[in-house]
Design brief:
- The protein is α+β, with helices and mostly antiparallel strands and 274 residues long.
- Helices cover 29% and strands 24% of the residues.
- It has a five-stranded antiparallel beta sheet, with helices on one face. A three-stranded antiparallel beta sheet has the order 3-1-4, with no helix packed on it. Strands 7-8 form a two-stranded antiparallel ribbon.
- A hairpin with a 2-residue loop joins strand 9 and strand 10.
- Helix 3 packs antiparallel against helix 5 and helix 3 packs parallel to helix 6.
- The protein is globular.
């Protein structure tokens, strides 16, 4: 892990769950008196804020950049955003849809709170209120973090899935495809389905670009693309399963994987031409 200095910033709690954890409004600051941690270069604006016990790591999102000499960067005033920051509207969408998905029985990060800051951020050329999102996870390492995860923690985490020998990726497949079935049955599109957004504890994360019937997209044009985009999540999930198999040095069993998709009512077969 890479250590960073941080300081406590002024904030206002605008969302919180009944899960009783202290708000930790830390932002990267080289003169700060707090320590926050980045576990891999794949986490540009997410930091480990603390660890309550073995299976509960508290994560902050929007707390600054984990690279460059600056905590935030604005690369362009037009059609860009403040890198390292998080807008309040994105934090609220992440929080609300994440909780909606969790209530459906899918394993996700456990949301703590959304904190509105006395700062602004730029998103798509517009200046918006900045925020922090705080949550906890069983495992802070994403599937894409395989190169940075301690081997002992990987082994211990994967053992919790169940499955033995070279079928561990099939156990993961059953969980991930089952998750997708639940999402799609409830008209929820994650819209960022890749190894960056599943932890090794198979927790689905990052809902800031997701949509549900309760929180559709504001743009009718973008809503019109949902039927096409949601179908793509089937193949994206297959790719995550393949990635997991390769990480675990298992040969992907395509026939078994396709049976799992069929079990969860996903038809991958092209009908024969008449």
């Amino acid at each position: 892990m890479r250590k960073f200095r941080a300081s406590r910033t002024t904030c206002q709690t605008v969302r919180e769950t009944e899960y009783n954890r202290e708000a930790l409004p830390f932002v990267r600051d080289e003169h700060g008196d707090k320590e926050i941690f980045c576990i891999s270069p794949n986490h540009g604006r997410s930091f480990v804020l603390c660890r309550y016990h073995e299976d509960e790591w508290v994560i902050g999102k929007g707390n600054g950049l984990s690279y460059t000499t600056h905590s935030r960067l604005l690369t362009s005033l037009v059609n860009s955003e403040t890198w390292g920051g998080l807008s309040l509207d994105n934090a609220l969408r992440d929080f609300d849809i994440g909780n909606e998905v969790r209530r459906l029985g899918i394993k996700t990060n456990r949301m703590h709170c959304v904190l509105s800051l006395d700062k602004t951020t730029v998103q798509n050329g517009e200046e918006k209120q900045a925020a922090l999102l705080q949550y906890s996870v069983e495992c802070p390492y994403r599937i894409s973090d395989i190169g940075f995860m301690p081997k002992s923690l990987l082994v211990k985490t994967v053992q919790k899935w169940g499955g033995e020998g070279h079928c561990r990726h099939l156990r993961a497949a059953d969980i991930l495809v089952g998750n997708l079935r639940v999402l799609h049955d409830h008209h929820i599109m994650h819209n960022a389905m890749h190894p960056q957004n599943y932890t090794w504890a198979l927790e689905l994360l990052d809902f800031e670009v997701s949509r549900s019937d309760n929180l559709p997209y504001a743009s009718s044009d973008y809503e019109s693309f949902v039927p096409m985009l949601i179908e793509a999540e089937v193949i994206q999930t297959y790719e995550i399963i393949n990635f997991i198999a390769w990480c675990l040095e298992e040969q992907p069993d395509d026939r078994a994987i396709e049976k799992i998709f069929s079990k969860h009512n996903f038809d991958l077969i092209i009908p024969p031409e008449k």
